[in-house]
Amino acid sequence: MVLDRRFGIEYQPVVDLASGQTVGHEALARFRDGRGCAMSPPAVFARLHREPSLLLHVELETTRLALERAPAGPIYVNIDPDSFHAGGVAGENALLEALSAAVGPVVVEAIETTSLSDSLRGGAMVRAIRARGIAVALDDVGAPGGLLSLELLAEVDVLKLDRSWLTRAQDPRSRAVLDAISALARRLGTRTVLEGVETAAHMALARELCVDAVQGFLFRDRFQASHIVP
User: Fold this and answer.
1) Higher confidence at residue 52 or residue 113?
2) 8-state DSSP, 49
3) How many Å apart are CA 142 and CA 144, to the nearest integer?
4) Which of 47, 81, 164, 179 has the highest count of CB atoms within 10 angstroms of its CB?
5) Helix, coil or strand: residue 83
6) First to last CA, the chain
């Protein structure tokens, strides 16, 4: 894959449910091709996974940019276990060093895994990051096809509930699972964020669940973007 792409960062607000105030931002990589046309981030990263060294390079550069231009308050950054482990042992890991050098507070988002090997890599990454005193969020909790690690569930600082719950919560059994996850998070003192919130009905569900914060296109007027850079 030739790296002739341009990239930037979009900062999406994490909004406190009780106060309605922005209490952090998630930094999301955005890509454009040589003609200036937007590219799908999942498609870009899917191709990058074929070349681990290039994946590490791109994730390192987007992470540095995200931290450098971050708004005030905690910044949530997504780190792929594959790129993290491509960086070598934890003590010499470039991604870990970039996160440790951040001026403001950082929360690293680790995604739910889809295989045992992914789970082992993700767990090792989470432990290395937390050993540096950096907070960790488990992202996409409950996503279809994901494997929920009970070990990670007890270790992380934030649970980000996958947007699929917004429709699945209509099913009584799914809702029972969601209520149980939310109750467990409260018992553990783990903060919860409901993702994908777009409507008043979604906000009503968030209040029923007693989550701490929400995120989604309902707050698109608060989105911020960095400039696309070479």
Assistant:
1) 52
2) T
3) 6
4) 81
5) helix
6) 16
Encode burial over 94-103: b for 16+ CB neighbours within 10 A, e otherwise: bbbebbeebe
Model pLDDT, residue 218: 97
* Alpha carbon separation from 97 to 2, 81, 120, 173 (Å, rounded): 26, 15, 21, 43
What tokens were used for 44? Answer: 């870009």
Distance CA 93, CA 124 (A): 13
Give the whole-angstrom CA distance, residue 83 versus residue 90: 12
In sequence order, what DSSP letters do the residues of 148-178 get, joined into one string? --HHHHHH-SEEEE-TTHHHHTTSHHHHHHH
What gap in Å lies between CA 100 and CA 118, rounded to an integer?
Answer: 24
In this prediction the pTM is 0.90
Domains and CATH numbers, the chain: 17-225 (3.20.20.450)
Q: Give the least confident one: 12-26, 55-69, 199-213.
A: 55-69
pLDDT digits (tens, 9 = 90+) for 67-90: 998 998 899 999 988 888 888 765
Helix, strand, coil percentages in the chain from 3-state DSSP, rounded to 5: 45, 25, 30
Amino acid at residue number 18: A
